[in-house]
Request: fold
Amino acid sequence: MKSLLPRAGILLSSAALALVMSFSGAQAQEKKTIAVSIPAATHGWTGGVVYHAEQAEKEIEASFPNIDVVLSTASSAPAQVSSLEDLAATRKLDALVILPFTSEELTSPVEQIKQSGTFISVVDRGLTDPNVQDLYVAGDNIAVGANTARWLVDKLGGEGEIVVLRGIPTVIDDERIKGFSDVIAESKIKILDIQYANWNQDEAFKLMQDYLAKYPRIDAVWANDDDMLLGVLEAIDSAGRKDVKYALGGNGMKQVIEMVKAGDERTPISTPYPPSMIKSAIYMTAAQFNGQAPMRGSFLLGAPLITPDNADQFYFPDSPF
Reply:
């Protein structure tokens, strides 16, 4: 699908989209239903997603009485598939905004909904077949991995031994790992191990314990999500290991941003991946019906390094994430 913005372009804010919609002239009064299907708040980032989706639901329904936003959450991929089947069976869905729990399991169910004429907006975790989506809103996951890796290569002087923690089997996890691995491959740094910890703090703690027991020397760790990073740090501290120079994550959790702001030697950087992208995607989708502003294509956030010099720009203390 052709991108409508440069890869490093900024995501349109929901406030700007609301302004577009408010100046659209005569608003259609035909009732429209937008279903929003997202993972439950199983960890910090998805907790932020749920928060921003709920805010968008309230704001859009208050401003546009003809739009009904139906929000559902699911704690697993099978539960999300079941929820979608129930929605499609009981309602006429004009649009679906979905953050898939996993890419592979959700592609076919979403494709079936699309066949009924539903506008499909995919957020964050892309489907395995991008032709299913009309709109895609996400961060630049390749840049999340690549920018972290470039910083790490520089700080380690191009050599060393590291371990990596993956998330769950999704397109965005694949992209982050590819961006990171491609840069590391150009150096003399060796990836000792790389396994899934499912973007879960407890699972990351256990996996990092295994890594520490297996490898007597680890120069750095990359957990491609900040929830996992917290588990990694706990495991390192519990083991009393001093050889790990850097433990890095990603997504810009406020707790990690606080470490960056404080100049933490082990976690001095992060990369942004804001959960508020779900809110922008819902507004973009609503613009199909009230904004006379058809949205098609891919909208990607950039992933600049968050450092002590710019951390204040990415720190939101009242946010749930």
The radius of gyration is 20 Å. Confidence is low (pLDDT under 50) at residues 1-16, 18-28. The longest helix spans residues 44-63. DSSP finds ten helices and ten strands in the chain.
